[in-house]
């Protein structure tokens, strides 16, 4: 038979479509807010909250407290970052942080998780493997090769800049590894990596 589509049906359809769009929009906004809460807005890396959620997610997957998993953590901060900010401006500092983040992503790839822990401090968490030293060596080699992001600063300032070797952006890294069975174990490795970084910075 012939189906008659009346104006009242059209109104109902329009209302249903409108409600569906609004519902989908709310879901999209919720997901975006959730993503922002765990992501550093400047670099796009995990932030501290993102790191906590990642560790919680990983450790929830542990079958029992007797089951132990290998983790390596690199805790690092940029040397001479204040010099960069003071001499070339905070915009240059931001550009260096972004360039450093992309460099870390290129080195770590899918082997671990990179966190901007705050300011010029970064953390790399590597599950199941222990090759923190190799990653650190690659970071140092990259920084030497690009002369502490000199080109990044020059492109931003649109001029050649002179940065003495002692004032170039470099990096100090503390490394710690361990077999852990839960959140507190990973937190302890992070604490030891932080202590190793402190030792490196002061010796």
What's the SSE blueprint?
Elements: H1 7-38, H2 48-60, E1 69-79, H3 81-88, H4 90-108, E2 113-118, E3 121-127, H5 132-145, H6 150-157, E4 170-180, H7 183-202
Antiparallel strand pairs: 1-3, 1-4, 2-3
Features:
single chain, 203 residues, alpha+beta, 7 helices, 4 strands, flat
Structure description:
- The protein contains seven helices and four strands.
- With 203 residues, the chain is α+β, with helices and mostly antiparallel strands.
- The protein has a four-stranded antiparallel β-sheet with strand order 2-3-1-4, with helices on both faces.
- Helix 3 (81-88) crosses helix 4.
- It is flat, with a radius of gyration of 24 Å.
- The model has no long low-confidence stretch (mean pLDDT 87).
The overall average pLDDT, rounded, is 87
Low-confidence stretches: none
Total strands? 4
Structural class: alpha+beta
Most strands sheet: 4 strands, antiparallel
Q: Topology as H/E string?
A: HHEHHEEHHEH
Beta-strand percentage? 15-25%
Q: Strand order, biggest sheet?
A: 2-3-1-4
| Rg computed from alpha carbons, rounded to a whole number of angstroms | 24 Å
* Helical content class: 55-70%
In whole angstroms, the N-to-C terminal distance is: 89 Å
- Helix tally equals 7
What overall form do the CA principal axes indicate? flat
């Amino acid at each position: 038979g012939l189906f008659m589509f009346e104006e009242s049906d059209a109104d109902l359809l329009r209302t249903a479509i409108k409600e569906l769009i609004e519902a989908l929009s709310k879901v999209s906004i919720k997901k975006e807010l959730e993503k922002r809460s765990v992501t550093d807005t400047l670099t796009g890396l995990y932030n501290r909250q993102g790191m906590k959620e990642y560790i919680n997610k990983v450790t929830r997957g542990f079958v029992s407290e007797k089951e132990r998993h290998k983790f390596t953590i690199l805790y690092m901060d940029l040397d001479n970052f204040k010099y960069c900010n003071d001499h070339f401006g905070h915009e240059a500092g931001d550009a260096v942080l972004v360039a450093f983040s992309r460099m870390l992503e290129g080195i770590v790839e899918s082997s671990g998780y990179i966190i901007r822990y705050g300011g010029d401090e970064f953390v790399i968490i590597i599950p199941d493997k222990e090759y923190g030293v190799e990653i650190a060596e690659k970071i140092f080699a990259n920084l030497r090769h690009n002369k502490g992001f000199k080109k990044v600063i020059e492109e931003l300032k649109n001029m050649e800049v002179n940065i003495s070797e002692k004032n170039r952006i470099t990096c100090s890294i503390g490394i710690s590894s361990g077999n852990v069975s839960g959140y507190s174990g990973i937190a302890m490795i992070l604490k030891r990596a932080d202590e190793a970084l402190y030792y490196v910075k002061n010796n």
